[in-house]
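In this supplementary section we document a worked example of the pipeline. Step one takes a protein sequence of length 427 as its only input; no multiple sequence alignment statistics are reported here. Step two produces a three-dimensional model, which step three serialises into structure tokens for compact storage. The input and output of this example are shown verbatim.
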Amino acid sequence: MGIVREQAEKFWNGEITVLDQHPLTPTGDSEEVAAGVMFYRWFANFTAVRTDEGIVLIDTGAWFNQDETVRMVRRFAPDRINTAIYTHGHVDHALGMAAFAAEGQKNHVARARVVGHRAVAARFDRYKRTSGYNGLINGRQFGAAAAWPSDYVYPDTYFDDRLTVTAGGVKFECHHGRGETDDASWVYIAQRKTLCTGDFIIWAAPNAGNPQKAPRYAREWAEALRAMAKTGAEVLLPGHGVPVFGAVRIRQMLNETAEYLQSLYDQTVALMNAGAALDEIVAQAAPPARLADRPYLRAVYDEPQFIVRNIWRLEGGWYDGRPAHLKPAPPAARAREIATLAGGADKLVARARERFAAGELALAAHLIDWAVDAAPDDRAAHAVRAEIYAARAAEARATMTHGIFRAAAAESAVKAGIELPADPRKF
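The serialised model returned by step three reads:
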């Protein structure tokens, strides 16, 4: 048993959990998981399939480690890259293609055909328009300064619903389904009983609510997962994390992930139809208890309440049901009124400390945000804010939550003139 299969078994049985090893961990492990099918566990996974007419790539790795991605494939086979299929246009899945194109040009070899859903082009166009914003939010999400790419290898073969790509007698069935993105696709290789899901499966609660990104599609995502479950696949290769082996396990993972999403969608829409405001729905809707701790549905990247908020945004718009929020006063003006009522910003800081000491971190965060909004140059207030948000980051299991809270702590640490520890738990 190779390292990939061994780890896959341990993850499924709970011997290793996503709390021990995050699904985004780029281990660099690789293994032939079916005849001629090489799986690579990278920041975003990718797959190389050997055919009689060259290699077919399903995803191409990220733009920030693309040269190493090429070297990994070349350790598997020297064959020409015949085709690259994008499961979607995220920069960690599609932007390794530039290095493969450069390699082909250097060796005077025809560039690979690039296949993707029609909406991939619109995504790349949007990324060019919003490069500054995307650099900022990804830096915040992952806790490090992040440049954003400006060059993209667009598909030359587009499809809308489905397309079968053939290379060397091997058929790659490409299916579109809206999920984490509107350009998402999954690929089934029937001759190898292998299913490449892209980010429909990431070994974590689905990334269907990311608070800093474009809308996600929980209901259609569930539909796509149920369609995959009908393929009879015996090997599942996810967008992040480890493969799953065995038809029974694969059906279970796909159907339970679909149930997780469908349940949140149904609860949210039912409460919307009953007239509930967004805050009420966020407080009430939750995934089925029996699924929340499945090894592949732990909330270590996204969070269920973020998914609920995204469903609201997609189906009902941005108004949250509170009239004062429709045309609100500026945050600083509101904070100054609250500070006046409290007897000054220092009273808000003191109260924030009390709530923080009592373990009420969410309430402490509201209080300290009002304090720094009312007195933005108050170094003492910012010092307390840095401490509160460092504590919130430390208790956060989800990458997105941790990143945003950590960024808030770092922001206030700079304004307070203090140093934020590398480990927020050691403030």
